[in-house]
Write a structure and sequence with these properties.
The complex is a heterotetramer, with 2 copies of chain A and 2 copies of chain B.
Chain A lengths: L2 E3 H15 L3 E5 L13 H5 L4 E3 L4 H13 L3 E5 L5 H4 L1 H8 L2 H4 L9 E7 L14 H7 L2 E3 L4 H13 L4 E6 L6 E3 L14 E4 L4 E5 L3 H11 L6 E5 L2 E3 L3 H11 L2 E4 L8 H12 L7 E3 L11 H7 L3 H14 L1
Parallel strand pairs in A: 2-3, 2-4, 4-5, 5-7, 6-7, 10-11, 10-13, 13-14
Antiparallel strand pairs in A: 1-8, 6-12, 9-11
Helix pairs in contact in A: 1-8, 3-5
Chain B lengths: L5 H23 L14 H9 L6 E3 L5 H6 L4 H8 L23 E3 L7 H14 L6 E6 L6 H12 L4 E7 L2 E2 L2 E2 H4 L4 H6 L4 E6 L3 H16 L5 E6 L20 H9 L2 H6 L4 H24 L25
Parallel strand pairs in B: 1-2, 1-3, 3-4, 4-8, 7-8
Antiparallel strand pairs in B: 5-6
Helix pairs in contact in B: 1-2, 1-12, 2-9, 4-12, 5-6
Classes of the chains: A alpha/beta, B alpha/beta.
Bound molecules: thiamine diphosphate (2 copies) and magnesium ion (2 copies).
Chain lengths: 323, 323, 323, 323
């Protein structure tokens, strides 16, 4: 069985969708030469009309995709940096997202916004290291953060096929993850459906994106003391609340680990929704970036601002002790 | 719709004129909530431009958008119902004045964000052509919009990729209260020429001149030419928005307003018709609008239970906000 | 004692700061004629250099303010529409907010972003009716939502004097609130400090912005059944957690009412932080807009999407019954 | 710094050249994390432009920003310490290559967002002049940036308000891998002329020519002229970013690279010096850089405890992310 990397899973998803549906096309900066190493080989196979390099005009090309979608195409945009989503926030949230309701259902805007390398890239510093998925979850745009190669494949395929705009964050910390998967086993993964990577009885750990792997490592480390259920939402909006409620109703304890700013982030949303619906035996905990975090350049500082395994370990110990 | 029949042009300007006057009455009577940005005085532009288009061509408008929607062929009754927030409106009452859209007749919508529609229409036209149509598109915008970066980015994309979009700048001298000379360094045609586009200045008060200039541009575009810009010089006869009817803002000298109003596109085009013919058209328009008002006011309001209908084209159901 | 309106409180705060500090200046669209009725009279008193009308170039003028702040000025920008903050999200969050850390403390960016008329303006529909304060709280930009005229004055003054960027949302639903206040009693209100409008013992209701008035009305209505404490955070980021924890520790019950989208909004943050720190006797509840809400145009639908008093009442009854 | 002393120009280009070569070595050895965008080949522009400025003038740079920072007078040792993430760096190790700033010598910073600095410097220069200085400013950017709407908006503001900013476009033929001809409709000077600015094209490989042209523009601006643009034609000798040293991207024909490299600003300027003089300067530069490398590598890394130092200029302390 070939070892599939997360990056190549994205490539394969794009290739499969381009092959399956003539209406799909890619748009982005330096995607022909595959500077981000995601679109490799695609221009050769599908031609420059369908793998379109664009000038540095993020606002215009994002709305160009909206217009193309209104006219029946299914564009996928690759963004080189997570903060470019700030630059096109208006175009996504105020236009693409709002068109169907504002027109009274006259149209759909099936655009996929793909961000390979979100979060810290080690040494890319303040303006290139954000993880702004909670912003889109707040706006109500479908928001996906796959943790594994198979999920990266399956969720990207579903994003392209979705009739609404979808933002897919591929965390820098997950891009090099590899997995033994049979190509035939790669299938669409439904949006809005969570995945339990490891069942457990004592505490539910909700981990987002690359942190799923940290959560699994910590769960393994604790295996003989605490039975940890590792819950990967995969889609942050719409969130699979029913599965989470079921999990926490069983374990009675909740820890969330999320590599984004704390205030009004998805970790807070998880806690809020769970406590509205399920009684807990111990106060919930979350491990996040600090409030208002800006990633400093120096490597040790950059690491210090991201959630660490030791913090997750401590949080789990806390909820076990408190409950 | 591609002919310059003087009667047809007159009918359109007269329809828009009377539509706006009726709409203002309905704002006063409280039937249209939130007010409108009247198109009064600028009717010749929408009429002249849209007469140069085919049914399968697409247009995108502005906050001052009624004229574009009507001139492209939307039903005045359903348009008025939309302004009154009725379920029978073009957008099922979800859009209102600033979002009125009728994709069936090629109107991608009015747009409440200045400068936003240029890139959207560029994408839509590009997509239509890829899908086999030889459609062209029109992006309407004001003199204020040429200072928005997103529009200038769209100029570049359209010019580079030779997407046949006619950028129609309705220069009415002001962006709200900001005089064009205080806002636009250089010139409006110069901004298009900077991207290699042909730019033409036209008297926006003369529907036939507008038509002639646009028809020529559309013919060039249809024959494979790139995008072009037309600056239509015009004057806004009424308030920026009907809120100004209650709050007087002091920014246009009365003599200037009088001078501006003296060149009336409805009068100019009307004078080209035999009296009897003009009277007949007026009666026809009156009958259409009387029926439209009746239709709008007799139509039901949408049910608040469906407040979030059409939010997601994919069928996703949003979590409600209740406690 | 004169009745001070919320709007005039903002005007007075701007006037006082312009008079107090030469480095303060205003920037915005149509602020000379005071189209938003906030900057009335200021150009006459302080001149057009300090009350600067700008072209429609939100991104550039937002960063212009950043540059001016870096050079020692204290700009205040008025935005005509809440969604214009989407357009300049990059400029605020990725630049103004990040400069101090990224430069290692070489500079400060004291800019105030003022949004008079956030939330629903009744009939302004999908693109003009957002309440995006949670986005800034997530990013870590100081975010203020005053509920009363005196707080509007005092918080705006403090925002202008703050050495960091501050976004101040003046909800449309609060702009017409009036209050009996002595001019001499108008003082700066510290950022990050909450206000208890009405003490109570049974339940803490956290209300944001104009909803404070709804919460007070509901509290009054319930006065003989439930003792409701009405807690107004005033600043959403940094939040006055200690005061809230103190309140909830006393009442044991929490309801949040917030006119913004539910997922990853400030209401969820309030619940998450409280349950991390305080045991509750009943599950907390929140009343918000739905997930991903887009305000439909028709008035009844627009209202249906915003939190209502009946919903708040129901939520209070729930937490009383559950606990 | 306003003289065109050939030795001084040579010293600057040589310093930048050797600084970049040393920095690339430090990337290879792992001392500079995250890599750099080498300025190799473009040294003549920073050197020529900054030689035309006074100490109190301000500049803002790009992601390819080392040359601008050094040419404006920052200490190479503290600059290198910054790239190595040391506490002694210009930004205390918080900024790194893409954010290196030294406000003390008028460098508002490199900037990781293409096109962002134009509006910032416009605001900074406007403010300095209001505060009494007669400073001018320079915004450096690449050929890719002229497609960013935010930069074009800044052109308009600077031109309208006659803010003396010299917009220096370093046209190195590519935006990452995108050839300028495939990205820029029209021409680069034409884009400035569209806003009424004077635009001059200069050979960016000749430091003296760059200096002469800029000095003349700066003199016009200082005498009250408005902003101007200079397009400096240049060639990037090395990779877009050092990541390309590991991953070959195929976009520049070898003959083109060879031709580009044949016009070397260091050689061109060096040839204008007597051999002995040149050798002496080289030795001096070598000594400076050897000391800089020693200083950088001997400097301490910042303490992770202070990871969020400088986040808020107002003294606000962020809530941490721990569980
Ligand atoms: C991006 C953006 N900025 C500001 C506004 C607020 N606004 C609405 S219309 C308008 C003036 C537009 O002027 P112009 O483009 O000349 O069109 P006109 O109103 O004259 O038809 C402004 C400032 C907006 N809707 N969108
Ligand atoms: C707004 C924005 N878009 C994209 C990027 C990613 N990016 C960084 S440098 C670069 C190319 C810039 O080209 P150019 O302006 O010509 O400068 P050069 O690299 O050639 O010096 C790109 C696309 C970015 N940093 N910011
Ligand atoms: Mg106008
Ligand atoms: Mg370049």
């Amino acid at each position: 069985m070939p070892r599939l990397s997360y990056r190549r899973a994205l490539t394969r998803a794009l290739a499969d969708e381009l092959a399956r549906d003539e209406r799909v096309f890619l748009l982005g900066e330096d995607i022909r030469v595959a500077a981000a190493n995601v679109t490799s080989g695609l221009v050769k196979r599908f031609g420059p009309e369908r793998v379109r390099d664009t000038p540095l005009s993020e606002q215009a090309f994002t709305s160009f995709a909206t217009g193309a979608a209104l006219a029946g195409m299914r564009p996928v945009i690759e963004f080189q940096i997570p903060s470019l989503l700030f630059l096109v926030f208006e175009q996504i949230v105020n236009h693409a997202h709002k068109f169907p309701l504002m027109t009274g259902g006259q149209c759909a805007v099936p655009v996929t916004y793909l961000v390979p390398g979100s979060g810290s890239r080690k040494g890319w510093a303040g303006q290139h290291s954000d993880h702004p998925y909670s912003l889109f979850a707040h706006a109500g745009v479908t928001t996906v953060v796959p943790a594994t190669p198979a999920d990266a494949y399956g969720l990207l395929v579903s994003a392209v096929r979705c009739d609404d705009p979808v933002v897919l964050f591929a965390p820098a910390g997950a891009l090099d993850v590899r997995e033994d998967v049979d190509a035939a086993a790669l299938v669409p993964v439904p949006l809005g459906r969570a995945r339990v990577h490891r069942p457990g009885d004592d505490v539910t750990v909700v981990a987002v994106g690359h942190l799923v792997h940290d959560a699994l490592a910590v769960a393994e480390e604790l295996a003989d003391q605490v039975s940890v259920e590792v819950f990967d939402p995969r889609t942050l909006y719409p969130f699979d609340w029913d599965s989470l409620v079921e999990s926490v109703a069983r374990t009675g304890r909740l820890v969330v680990v999320d590599d984004a700013n704390r205030s009004c982030g998805v970790a807070g949303e998880v806690i809020a929704t769970v406590v509205e619906r399920v009684p807990l035996v111990a106060p919930p905990r979350r491990v996040t970036r600090p409030d208002g975090a800006v990633l400093p350049f120096a490597p040790a500082l950059d690491r210090a601002v991201q959630p660490g395994r030791d913090q997750l370990l401590a949080a789990i110990h806390h909820v076990m002790k408190d409950g | 719709m591609t002919d310059a029949d003087p009667v047809r042009l007159y009918r359109t300007v007269r329809l828009i004129r009377r539509f706006e006057e009726r709409a203002i009455e309905l704002v006063r009577s409280g039937h249209i909530v939130g007010g409108i940005h009247p198109y009064l005085g600028q009717e010749g532009i929408a009429a002249g431009v849209c007469a140069a288009l085919r049914a399968d061509d697409v247009v995108a408008g502005t906050h001052r958008g009624h004229g574009h929607v009507l001139a492209k062929g939307a039903d005045p009754a359903r348009m008025l119902a939309e302004l009154c927030g009725r379920a029978t409106g073009l957008n099922a009452g979800r859009g209102g004045s600033m979002h009125a859209a009728d994709l069936g007749v090629g109107v991608l919508g009015a747009n409440a964000i200045v400068g936003a529609s240029g890139a959207i229409i560029t994408g839509a036209v590009w997509a239509r052509r890829r899908l086999g149509a030889d459609a062209v598109g029109v992006s309407f915008f004001g003199d204020g919009a040429v200072n928005e970066g997103m529009l200038l980015e769209a100029f570049n994309l359209a010019a580079l990729w030779r997407v046949p979009v006619l950028f129609v700048c309705e220069n009415n001298g002001y962006a709200t209260t900001m005089p064009v000379a205080a806002a636009v360094a250089g010139s409006i045609p110069g901004r298009a020429e900077a991207f290699g586009m042909t730019a033409t200045v036209v008297d926006g008060q003369d529907p036939e001149e507008v038509h002639a200039v646009t028809a020529a541009a559309v013919a060039r575009m249809r024959a494979g030419g790139g995008p072009e810009l037309v600056e239509a010089r015009t004057y806004r006869f009424d308030a920026h928005h009907t809120f100004e009817h209650a709050v007087r803002l002091d920014y246009r000298p009365p003599e200037e307003v009088a001078r501006g109003r003296s060149r009336d596109p409805v009068a100019i085009q009307g004078a080209r018709l035999p009296d009897a013919r003009r009277v007949a058209v007026d009666a026809e328009v009156e009958a259409t609008l009387t029926a439209a008002v009746e239709f709008a006011l007799a139509s039901p309001e949408p049910d608040p239970v469906d407040a979030l209908a059409y939010l997601y084209a994919s069928g996703l159901t949003a979590r409600t906000g209740g406690g």
